[in-house]
Here is the input.
Amino acid sequence: MSSIISLVMSLILKVAPGATTEIIAQIVPILVQLVPILVQEYKDLLPVVQNIIAALKDNSEITQEQWDALDALNQQYDAEFLAALQAAKAEDAELDAADAAAAVAKPAT
Amino acid sequence: MANLKQILRVMMTGLFVATAGASLGGCQTWDQFTTSVKTTIDVIGGTKVSGAKAYIALNVFAGIETSTTKFLKLPACAPTSTVICRPRGAAAEIEGPFTTAIAARNQLRAWMKANPDATVADIGLYNALTAATNALAPILSKYGISTGS
Here is the structure.
């Protein structure tokens, strides 16, 4: 756990606004070390971190393949987000209605 | 574990701030860029940013979005909740800012697809995405939205 935190803190210290590209390039090895941790515990973030690593490592332009993959990922994440949002709002509305009904039914003291 | 999740969230936000701030800072930041040989972080002619920079910003937002989805899937809090839960009203509060950010992201991607040279992105649309993403920070902080399950 402490090694993970020290890795992350190293990254945070390097990403201060105004950092040069050389400094940012030093972030890449840190992110690479985080990958196995993400695989194990935060796998939902793995694709985006891998994408960021690729963009920082490679000085060439982003390929059409990379853009297509990101677009597909965005579609997936959007669908999941919207579904979760609607379900959460519906649950909240149901609970609010139940609370209101209970308050009405409660005899006045 | 809760502190690690917060740190990872800060990391993602910090990485985004670094890439955004690196081109939107003051004279010292601009001088650093003009001497840089890398094109990853680059403002082109004052009206464009490199495609790689837009790519990174889009991925950072995707990370925030999927983390927020996990939070939304938590059960709603009850007075007797003993497990991690989602405060009532959080979903409604999240909806507006995320709708704005998703729209900004879509506009940026639409511009890049519509323009023949997809190696650059319009800086105005890029800035709109960064602003919309930054606006999410208080909400993420308020609800302690973590990066793990």
